[in-house]
Write the structure tokens for this entry.
Amino acid sequence: MKQKFFFSPLSIGTCYYPEHWDKTLWEEDLRRMLSHGVRTVRIAEFAWNKIEPREGVFDFSFFDEFLSLCETLGMKVIFGTPTATPPAWLTQAYPEVLNARIDGTLLRHGARRHYNYNSPKYRELCARIVEQIAIHYGKHPSIIGWQIDNELNCELMEFYSESDSVAFRAYLKEKFGTLDELNEKLGTTFWNQTYTAWEELYVPRPTISGAVNPHLMLEYKRFISKSVLSFAKIQADILRAHIPETAFVTTNGLFGNVDNHDLEDTVLDVYTYDSYPNFAYMADAPSDGMRDRWWSRNLTKVRSVCKHFGIMEQQSGANGWNTGMEAPAPKPGQMKLWAMQSVAHGADYVSFFRWRTSPMGTEIYWHGLLDYDNRDNRRIRELDELDSLFGQIKEICGEDYVARVAIVEDYDNQYDAELDVWHGRLVRSSNDGLFAAMQYSHTPFDIVDVRDDFSAYSVLFYPHPAIMTDETIAKLERYVSEGGTLVIGCRFGYKDEYGKCPVGRILPHLPFAGVTVKESTFVNPDGVKVSFGGRLISANWYRDVLEPTTATVLGTYTGDYYEGEPALTEQTYGKGKVLVYGSTFGEEREILDYLGVSEPFKDLIVCARDVEIAVRGKYLILLNYAPTAQICCLSSPLVCMDGVVGTVVEGELELPPYGVKVCILA
Amino acid sequence: MKQKFFFSPLSIGTCYYPEHWDKTLWEEDLRRMLSHGVRTVRIAEFAWNKIEPREGVFDFSFFDEFLSLCETLGMKVIFGTPTATPPAWLTQAYPEVLNARIDGTLLRHGARRHYNYNSPKYRELCARIVEQIAIHYGKHPSIIGWQIDNELNCELMEFYSESDSVAFRAYLKEKFGTLDELNEKLGTTFWNQTYTAWEELYVPRPTISGAVNPHLMLEYKRFISKSVLSFAKIQADILRAHIPETAFVTTNGLFGNVDNHDLEDTVLDVYTYDSYPNFAYMADAPSDGMRDRWWSRNLTKVRSVCKHFGIMEQQSGANGWNTGMEAPAPKPGQMKLWAMQSVAHGADYVSFFRWRTSPMGTEIYWHGLLDYDNRDNRRIRELDELDSLFGQIKEICGEDYVARVAIVEDYDNQYDAELDVWHGRLVRSSNDGLFAAMQYSHTPFDIVDVRDDFSAYSVLFYPHPAIMTDETIAKLERYVSEGGTLVIGCRFGYKDEYGKCPVGRILPHLPFAGVTVKESTFVNPDGVKVSFGGRLISANWYRDVLEPTTATVLGTYTGDYYEGEPALTEQTYGKGKVLVYGSTFGEEREILDYLGVSEPFKDLIVCARDVEIAVRGKYLILLNYAPTAQICCLSSPLVCMDGVVGTVVEGELELPPYGVKVCILA
Amino acid sequence: MKQKFFFSPLSIGTCYYPEHWDKTLWEEDLRRMLSHGVRTVRIAEFAWNKIEPREGVFDFSFFDEFLSLCETLGMKVIFGTPTATPPAWLTQAYPEVLNARIDGTLLRHGARRHYNYNSPKYRELCARIVEQIAIHYGKHPSIIGWQIDNELNCELMEFYSESDSVAFRAYLKEKFGTLDELNEKLGTTFWNQTYTAWEELYVPRPTISGAVNPHLMLEYKRFISKSVLSFAKIQADILRAHIPETAFVTTNGLFGNVDNHDLEDTVLDVYTYDSYPNFAYMADAPSDGMRDRWWSRNLTKVRSVCKHFGIMEQQSGANGWNTGMEAPAPKPGQMKLWAMQSVAHGADYVSFFRWRTSPMGTEIYWHGLLDYDNRDNRRIRELDELDSLFGQIKEICGEDYVARVAIVEDYDNQYDAELDVWHGRLVRSSNDGLFAAMQYSHTPFDIVDVRDDFSAYSVLFYPHPAIMTDETIAKLERYVSEGGTLVIGCRFGYKDEYGKCPVGRILPHLPFAGVTVKESTFVNPDGVKVSFGGRLISANWYRDVLEPTTATVLGTYTGDYYEGEPALTEQTYGKGKVLVYGSTFGEEREILDYLGVSEPFKDLIVCARDVEIAVRGKYLILLNYAPTAQICCLSSPLVCMDGVVGTVVEGELELPPYGVKVCILA
């Protein structure tokens, strides 16, 4: 992860759609934004028609006028390429640019993101408009950065057009060279699926029961990611030929079937994210779990892609479409809380979605800072508070989030867990469990991509990577032998890189773990747990019965036919050690405590369970997700950065409902 | 609402399918009907093949024979045009007449209503057969009226054929004139949906997430209604050219995406309805709510369309298809109860569906008066009881239902609430709540279309009209200033007639209400209520925090961040007043009591909760929906019209389980 | 039912896929199987490409090598025709061979069973490869039998290709001769569905609400069965022309829309079944009911088709696809228990699915005897135990299952119950109830097809045959008059053979039952029961109120408007009697007790509720489905065949959790 661009200093932006408003509102809007601390607007990402109203006819007058006003008033701009919403004239003339359902039904004009990445015609038309825009606006003094398209792979991350089949064949040909190689690597012998001509290969098509070759599906997901990257790269390359070095290229991402790390490394300068914690309060959202606090995990994932990122769309009001997703207005404090949640996890720029709620279209309930009535409201008041706080902590930009523990992730296993319901269940269960364990024990953690450097962490969790390559094992072996602690869960490494299950491989596929799996089973919910250090911890969905060769047994199962059998083992290796857990990880903190990594700041502050603690450099940030005030106990006085700056707090520190505190570490 | 035809005197009919039975059964069936008081049969609405067995070949011998028998025996006939079920030869030859799913899949022969209204070919073939029938039977002495098609828009009220797109384009062109106007009014700027050629416009097509421009969708619904009306008008015009003035034209309606008021006003002479309260007892029906009593609301809606209507299909036996909708047989008394529920609400003709249960096809479980075994049964005995009662109250025809309270409805908001899940939730919640409040407080009410006259009502509820036009506001202002009381709920008027949300509009959009909405939010179920007059009343799904300018606060919220804030206000204006409620209406009667309109007959009779009371002219009708006997207390003696006619009842009046009483007001 | 082939002696097999493994594993695998008692392998059923890698090019070298090894080592082989999975080259060249969804969407290469039975091209290509295989391997000394295709109609039992419509028309033409006859018999008058040309007839196509003519649907199901049989017969005829008389032809069946009795009688030599009781423990399986014990009903149905059958695929490990169906590993004992459940019900051959778990494809979680790690495990140890037991009871082959009670079934009603939700609910309810009643009262029973001989049974249940032909009534009359007891449930015989409901037919349609149905109704769950002999028994979903003419009332309803009315009657007729029950049958044993057929072995042994008892000839088999030990009490000593052979057990016999006992009757 080499980051090419940093936002600095910490600042506020918003998303603005000049095309949604009468021009007479523009100046008032921009002046009002500036008066509330909004210094940047993101524009144009759905405005193809405003620039190319008919095929090949370009007209820049609309944005010329708006950008000229921005320049005059001193508003900075992030300009979006408009390729997420092709015009009606385009899809009417070239239906081959459309994405399709798996049965071939074309997805038509009327919503957004209805194109496919692989249509040569769409690539040509996108390249042309991006080039026209880049030539015309590339050096505009107000534009500080460029957003490619909008939310690549949002809403739908599967593509079934004819162009996709053509491109998929090319991808497979390049990867495997020969059909013999493809057939062998993808296990097509099963159910007689052997391919004898490249033309027999397609993106997934309708089958009985929806079953298809899972190994080909894994390649399909990798292919989609490649498609996204190559589509984005066309635009990035064109932009870079015309914009100054000081302007960045980004996209607002973190959707499925994309290797975001690769996207960041090879296409973008900086990564931005759209953060909507209010999804946790939608009418059909589950009422248990971490709710909005879960977004800290998403933000941790974003930080894994890009250490110092921006928020391109930060929740301001209620969200919803006219067709669904009803969610309440954020309660007083939540808008600020969630913005600071982003900052706590590495955001150096926070742009609210959106200035004023759309008066039309599908998103009339995706509320902005202002409502239709255009009056000042409590969100504007919270914006002022945030602006004031941002002013006080503006130096936080570039400061690193502090964590000694990390969870290893990789795209192969992410894709596989989406395809394979057995694998997926384990991953979701441990993701939930580990995140809760970390949060409740106030243990900051990172997510680290398997390709990145592990050396910063004393403890790594790698819960259930079904797919395990030799290189990864070698890397883990190096990490442990040099002093790291590796904790792995059940089903470690039973698949090769194509998702096949090698014959004769003994699990867990980690030779230096000092343990093997004697037998193992999926389980439906039952009461069986693992007894560990006098406590009972969760062991859901799957149980590997362990058989130590050299490892020590730390925990055993409490029931069923494997009652008393080993469930948790520990093996020292080199300077480090490996713990193997035969099941999924629960929200209990016992393993973190055992490894001595929980509550790293407990000598400084003891927080209530509902409060998240995050440290970026010298900044200590406390976030209260609860609807009631929470008390944190300080061991020594701290200087507080919000409210009256410089106030020293000591003893009991009360966070109001949904409240935030930022202090300075000595 | 100008009604052109009245049924009189009150009478019983049935639906008969001569084509389902061996001709040898006809005479016995007709004689048996007449002996049980059935004086009219509805026929022919699914019998195209019996008249035009091959394209262009007409043969009237089948119905000649049947109608001749009717004439001989004195049975009156309502003749249905057979256009709801095109023959196999027709759809095989002209697949363009078929309706389609949104993805273009044609809906084929094998069920019913598989045609589209806009196919020129289908219109031509329908016009031809209707004209042939009208010429041949138009003056037949037994025929008293004509039914157009059958249940227009039943089962499916969306149309996606190519003919529909062609017609939709013409509709839009006529309405908007230019694409610029269309683009502006329909807010196509959002997500770059601007249209640059009429050919780019279609009926809805598949999109990602199913989202489409909601304003275009609203036009689409209006367009479907227009399509229904113009399709029906072709037939009505042909019929009228050939039938006597004494014969009526009707259709059996009240389905979605139709402006039934307009249909009644411009196409029909009288409106008929198909009433199936047993739907409330289907295996998958919700077990809470008003169950069969809810049909009183449907009948109120029918009365809004046509003050004195007919029931073309009245529940007699169990209903169900072989593929679903299992419902039990009506319990002893329910058939009569439900027929009298229709009469109580304005029906002057009640035709049971159907004489004898179909021995074949999808509807073998849609039971008629007789079962397959053809024996007399308890439904026939109830029919006799009803016939006797009808004889005693036959003068009820033309008598008006008595109500001082009305709920305002309009099609714009009805359509919008079907498209917009936020709007829809509110409407459903208040419809349920208000209906229960009216019923439990024995407060008869009307539904009044926004275009109709309000002057008969002392109190109007207009719960959640998201769409609000200037004319409507002016009309409401007149109503209130002249002494009316208007009660409105949350979200009043935030949309224009296209469903867009005007910028700068302050809510509620009712200048003389003396109150504004400070802030507002969707809410998931929680315990918060409104404290009003010492009681707590429901406030579900949405909460507007009110800010009175000149209005008085009557009620406040009991929790959350708006605890203690105004929730119900009152403003006097002219001779009347406006109450604004910040949420949805619940089943509590407090607002009705406060306004003094509940229990208007309480000086005469105090009814049990499970008994509905209705008054038509001098007739007082009591309906017991409960499986147990219910007691009503009379303040003075009343003359009873059922059982032994003229019996005077006083003191405690017991209604048997599912029982009915009709009394005469002094 | 004339069985043409018997497995003997009792033996173990497995399913092996030589094409899934490196050839270097073959010899080790075969030797290892033989060392654990596996004497037969089923091969090749998904291996078309291994024999015809390109159209018209045949290459037998792969299986030559494998079969030669089998011959050398003494392994017997069942060879499968590979037609369940056409190669990619085939479906790419001839898409007309594919099955389709009802909307015409073709079901593509990538899963299995994606062909249609009626494509002339597919029949031609299947015939060719089967003939090539038969010529080449027909007389191979290792091959003892042939499996046609694999699981005909598994996963999907509906076919909507164009070839199917062509064949369906031919079927209808042959059956009905004229369109007039078809229209009349199939009641097409309803909803004007009359056909005027054969070309207007299709396999079902999309319609509004999914409703189609139910009588045509019934023919469609009969047609699918005919299609399966004629497809299978092509292969069977070819095979028989080339194989020795000692080799059998089978298929592994019991899927829907197939007349399995006809298939067995006219196409096969012996029937085999795939038994997976672990389905009862899948993550989404209902947690109530008989769970794995339910498979005894399936096996009873198999026995109805073929008295002495084989299990082609017997559950060994966990089952699941990567896309779903997660189920746990069978617990210790269950694999053996389920194998013995098969034997107890008539299996003379048990072939485990599969030797080693597939390392690739959709079925990586459909575990075999061995896991990917290829180590011996507890399933191999259970296999050894089973091999030992099989050795001790190998003479059981050909011994008949002992039952005095039977449930009558027929395909007309089975198909109708799948189409007609009213009928289906009753059938499912009584199937569940009667099976539980039989099991809990330890009453072995058979299922007998309506075409088969009833004389072996003293009591017949024929719960809810909606369709009833005159021949069947005559047969039942003969059965009863000769001394049998017939017990029928509600809704007996209200339909003719086309599923239409004849007018004037009095129910129950059984003249000698001495009772009629006065009225009847579907009911939602309520508390009403039937009072019978001082006990209350279940009466769910439907209630016929009975009116005896000559019958005696045995039971009455306990509630609703038919409280106290007859619900169970008895009529003696000839030497026998008929009981009519007005509802569905519950799990109470009262009717069995009343008829004196429950617990036929109670003088010998009294079993715990969780233990199933089965007798084949002199073999008494006890099966404990519970996770805890169960006690059975013996009245006299028995010789035990498992564990130490010949051990005499007496008094209390303990079955361990999931345990099995086989004893010898004196």
